[in-house]
């Protein structure tokens, strides 16, 4: 399989193919009592929302590679994310 393949990841325990956001949500659901105890539930919920909206960093990097099949597309995307207003 080429490294620019954008298929979702297999679930660690079941082997079912799930997007990273679904895997992260399942983990958060499993450890939610601990997140509440330590006051981290809101931060994790916000992170999961961003993950669902934008995908993981790996997914965001694989997408342009799968589309254009050139590393320059990945680097250009990273620059846009890092310096949305230009890097001067």
Question: Would you kindly provide a brief summary of this structure?
Answer:
This protein is mainly alpha-helical and 88 residues long. The protein is built from four helices and two strands.
Explain what you see.
With 88 residues, the protein is mainly alpha-helical. The protein has four helices and two strands; from the N terminus they run ββαααα. The protein has a two-stranded antiparallel sheet. A hairpin with a 6-residue loop joins strand 1 and strand 2 (17-18). Helix 3 (57-68) packs across helix 4. It is flat, with a radius of gyration of 16 Å. The mean pLDDT is 82.
Per-chain topology:
Elements (H helix, E strand, L loop, with lengths): L8 E2 L6 E2 L1 H18 L3 H14 L2 H12 L2 H12 L6
Helix pairs in contact: 1-2, 3-4
Oligomer: single chain
Parts with pLDDT < 50 across at least 5 consecutive residues = none
| SS summary, helix count | 4
Structural class: mainly alpha
Helix content: 55-70%
Tell me the Rg in angstroms: 16 Å
What is the distance, rounded to the nearest whole angstrom, between the alpha carbons of the first and last residues?
A: 38 Å
Tell me how many strands there are. Answer: 2
Overall pLDDT: 82
Strands of the widest sheet, in order across it, are 1-2
> What's the order of the H and E elements?
EEHHHH
Largest sheet: 2 strands, antiparallel
Shape: flat
Strand % is under 5%
């Amino acid at each position: 399989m080429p490294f620019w393949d954008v298929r979702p990841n297999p679930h660690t325990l079941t082997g079912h193919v799930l997007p990273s956001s679904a895997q992260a949500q399942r983990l958060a659901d499993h450890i939610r009592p601990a997140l509440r105890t330590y006051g981290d539930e809101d931060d994790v919920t916000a992170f999961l929302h961003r993950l669902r909206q934008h995908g993981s960093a790996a997914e965001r990097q694989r997408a342009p590679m799968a589309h254009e099949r050139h590393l320059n597309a990945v680097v250009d995307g990273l620059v846009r994310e890092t310096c949305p207003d230009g890097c001067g």
